[in-house]
Amino acid sequence: MKRHTALAVTGLLLLTAACTAGPDDGDDGEAPAPETSQAPGGRWQPRPGTAWQWQLSGKLDTSVKVPVYDVDGFNTTKEQVADLKRAGRRTICYISTGAWEDFRPDADAFPKSLLGEGNGWKGERWLDIRQASVLEPLMAKRFDMCRDKGFDAVEPDNMDGYKNKTGFPLTASDQLAYNRLIARLAHDRGMAAGLKNDLDQIPQLVGDFDFAVNEQCAEYGECDSLTPFIKADKAVFHVEYERSTDEFCDRSKKLKLSSMEKKYELGPWRKPC
Questions:
Q1: Where do the segments described as Disordered lie (predicted)?
Q2: 69, 92 in Cβ contact below 8 A?
Q3: pLDDT in tens, 232-271
Q4: Which residue of 112, 161, 235, 273 pairs with 249 in a disulfide if CB–CB is 3.0 to 4.6 A?
Q5: Distances (CA, A) of 236 to 76, 81, 83, 149, 216
Q6: Strand 90-96 relative to strand 99-101, pairing
Q7: Please, which residues bridge with residue 60 across strands?
């Protein structure tokens, strides 16, 4: 199941540098204060139930009354991040760490030996995460960008290549080592790190990550797999594309997930639980 590949539309629908205000479903009043605890080193760690907005395409709508924004790291400007922070929002930097994207400005920096099979979306190919010594400086530079723009956290995507047809003989051990490397790169820069999908490895990785991001656990009957994060007092940011809020919100609330319905293009529209 390649649920993460819904994000590939960002290659065609890039965030513009301008901010705009617009209507939002389900939110009224001022943005609540972020629900936060302190992780080791003083970095941000969102708590279960924290509301969020996830926007990776279209003109950035800063009017959503939630404490957390998850936005594209390349296409969101330092000024936009500062505007969100002045409004009391925490910010998460979306970066693909397990797949190469030909539309990114650093695409030519990736050696061809790293590039595997396509992940089902135009312009994207899986990365050989076994070549950690080659990938580490590339990802470190991306995370430097996130830090320098003022982001509080990183959402590294495509973190479950070992479960897909990448063109490389990736193992679970390869994935664990790489995911821990990614978490360390974020932590070394004072940012929190979120585990994206990779449900099977949550028991081993919950201690390495500060929150989780999940797509479609309700559709696939997998939401219970995310409970280790909740038990560790760490937020699970969750979206569904093919299910309505009537179908999953009751269960999400019981599990303390931060859930909402979104469209695949991940534009401004949202319908939270």
A1: 23-48
A2: yes
A3: 999 999 999 999 999 999 999 999 999 999 999 999 999 9
A4: 273
A5: 23, 22, 25, 24, 12
A6: unpaired
A7: 19
